[in-house]
Design brief:
This protein has 463 residues and is α/β, with parallel strands linked by helices. The chain is built from 19 helices and 18 strands. It is elongated and about 105 Å long.
Length: 463
Amino acid sequence: MSSILVVDDEKSLRDFLAIMLEEVGYKVFTAHNAESAVKLIKENIFDLILTDIRMGKSSGISVLENAQKILPDTPVVMMTAYASAETAVDAMKKGAYDYISKPFKIEDVQLIVKNAIEKRKLAEENRFLKTALNDRFKISNIVGKSPTFQKIFDLIEKVSRSNATVLIHGESGTGKEIIAKAIHFNGNRKNYPFVSVNCGALPENLLESELFGHEKGSFTSADSLKLGLMESANKGTFFLDEIGEAPLSIQVKLLRVLQENEILRLGGTETIPVDLRIIAASNRNLSSLVADKDFREDLYYRLNVIPIFLPPLRERKEDIPELVDFFIKKYNSKHGKTIIKGVEPEAMRLFENYSWPGNVRELENVIERAVVLETGETIQKSSIPEEIIGRMPAGQIQVPNLDAEKIDLERTLEQIEKTMLSNALVQSDGIINKAAKQLNLSFRSMRYRIQKHQLKGKSKDNE
């Protein structure tokens, strides 16, 4: 039940407001002057304060000012029989949520009260979410004890205190967005938005509209003005994921943001200033893209002010046990299973010997699957996917001894090809085009080999 403090020197009005508000479900306290109101404010937490401005020798402005110090999240609505603009504006300038002119209608009072209390609840929810996010992305809560990751934590801590542009390199699944959020939520912009966009997930025309917004009538279906994501993230952090996939035409406009701190809406004629911290990420080698003229050199150097490289999981295997423990706790909670306590030694050896082409994301998926399937207290080998048990580690393809009496060359080559295809597909999130590029194959050749080995893949462009 929301509580309301009504302050007025007129007893009949206090009683009327108390009865009217209690009838619609509020708990009401009353005070006859500013002094008694302040005493109640110090002793209670109110969801709303409704106070008259002029009460004999005391003032509702005094109630407002004290409420802002003691209960800063509680909205204050002023009541006045003097409906002059000057009185109302003065109260609003001092931070009042709204004002009501006497005499007033019951419906008007109920509506203002309802809206003010909803605003307070929304503010509380936002504060709770921000606190939860701040806690989640504390540097101490990110898993990684390897020397490489400890250096990354030190770098995050230093970078967070600045507004410098950051470029995060790393394979898919290494946690680039988590690092970007850690930089944001440990920095001086944490109370402002963190907004992200995947530059490879949208077609060029849609990406431009999403980033920069558009004016009404700028294209056929633009029937109203639309704010872009960058404009909505003003004063916060903007995360450009997979920046290597951004078309050259978009790269030119991103360069303007970095150089001039302004955007131009699609179809617009006037630039709009923005205050953003830019963090970009890529699983591709941007310097190679620059050499191939697929990425602007000037944009690359603007982004690469503070480079952070996230190593693949296969290069920091000492972090695997800690990550496994973290994901077991996470998915025990998510799926309501508290019985999983750990991993049997044989299963942990498999985790530590596996190459993890999908990196931390793949490990997380495997642990969630095991938590769901396992019935005992520890994750057994039987709960681990066959492809992990049977797959050869990357860089450790087993070649038969040439001293053997018989070698089945065709079969050996088939096994090696299947292993490399499977690893490439996992690393590219199953997208055939990406896996084909990694193996220097055409799309058709890659698709043929996938079908031959009965593997699974998906075509990004539906070829």
